[in-house]
Write a structure and sequence with these properties.
The protein is of the alpha+beta class and about 325 residues long. Helix content is about 35%, strand content about 20%. The chain binds adenosine-5'-diphosphate and magnesium ion (MG). Adenosine-5'-diphosphate binds next to α1, β2 and β3.
């Protein structure tokens, strides 16, 4: 539904839907720059993620969930580094100033922002094909950022929550999978409203040796850790946690969704066996399950094994915007 008058201008739009009082930032929306003040001695962690219509979301997504997801995928990057969210900026291209869309989008966006104490401090607004680019700013103590490069041979490999449901939902939309209504709704929420594991990332500071958030598929993202850390890994593919909905499908399909699904926004991380109890404590503190799914090896190749320890052939790809 479009505002019948359709006269909402750029600055009215910003004022009405995106301007909120800031408390932690020194200066928010309204000037040429926002001003942030990290706590004394803390480092800034910065990350941007763009969401393009038809590429990162389907037009069937509600504005509210889209607002949530646009920020969630960015907070997930802060989580992967163990940073505490501070603020974010929002660059938005909109086909038209549709107030129904804007109201829902702002509601979903600010609900998640408030949950994480993360303030909208600026951005840009323009007319064009729907495109949402958020930059998040977080802080963390020097030397404690979780990086992709810290995995060491002998470390355990873990993943948070469960993976694969977002891919299952996508396949429902594509028409390749059929699910009963209630199951469809559950996996659809996983795809459209992921929960960034911010508390877990912070709890893993000083415990995990490396981390990444799973956005392009578990094995593909694991590959980034392995390359940056110059190590290999063995993954026990059947111990990768999955939902009850996904577990009803064939084993081949479960493996495809859990290992190569993408859009999961869970944390994949490593820690030495001596820190296993601390890893579980971090999960309890953050209120999310953490599951050991394998081990870091001294060198490549990446090996996949099943529950019986037999080798599983690798046929799993990772999402690449310029290859698919
Ligand atoms: P400039 O011309 O200096 O780029 P703009 O006129 O684009 O500034 O924006 C005016 C103010 O509104 C700035 O403080 C900018 O950060 C903010 N702003 C613009 N678009 C958004 C948005 N989508 N969300 C939040 N703040 C925005
Ligand atoms: Mg501008």
């Amino acid at each position: 539904m479009t505002n019948p008058a359709a006269t909402l201008g750029e600055f009215d739009l910003i004022a009405k839907y995106f301007t909120r009082p800031v408390r932690r930032a020194l200066l928010g929306i309204g000037d040429d720059c926002a001003l942030l003040q990290p706590a004394p001695g803390m480092q800034l962690a910065i990350s941007s993620d763009m969401l393009v219509d038809g590429r990162h979301f389907l037009s069937t997504v509600s504005p509210q969930r889209l607002g949530h997801k646009a920020l969630a995928v960015n907070l997930s990057d802060l989580a992967a580094c163990g940073a505490r969210p501070l603020a974010f900026s929002l660059a938005l291209a909109l086909p038209r100033a549709d107030e129904t869309f804007l109201a829902g989008f702002a509601q979903g966006l600010f609900a998640l922002a408030q949950e994480h104490g993360c303030e909208l401090v600026g951005g840009d607004t323009t007319q064009g094909p729907l495109n949402i680019c958020i930059t998040v700013f977080g802080e963390l103590p020097p030397g404690l950022a979780l990086l992709r490069s810290g995995a060491r041979a002998g470390d355990d490999l873990y993943v948070s929550g469960s993976v694969g449901d977002a891919r299952l939902a996508l396949e429902c939309f594509r028409g390749t999978v059929n699910l009963p209504g209630d199951q469809f709704e559950r996996v659809r929420v996983a795809m459209e409203q992921p929960q960034p594991r911010v508390a877990l990332g912070m709890a893993l500071r000083g415990v995990a040796t490396s981390a990444i958030d799973v956005s392009d598929g578990l094995l593909g993202d694991l590959g980034h850790i392995l390359r940056r850390s110059s190590v290999g890994a063995t993954v026990e593919v059947d111990s990768v946690p999955r939902s009850a909905v996904l577990a009803e499908h064939t084993l081949a399909w479960q493996r495809e969704c859990t290992l190569a699904g993408g859009d999961d926004y869970e944390l994949l991380f490593t820690a030495p066996p001596s820190r296993a109890a601390d890893v579980q404590a971090a999960g309890r503190q953050a209120g999310v399950a953490v599951t050991r799914i394998g081990r870091i090896e001294a060198s490549l190749p990446l090996q996949l094994i099943d529950a019986q320890g037999r080798s599983v052939p690798q046929r799993f790809g990772s999402f690449d915007h310029f290859k698919s």
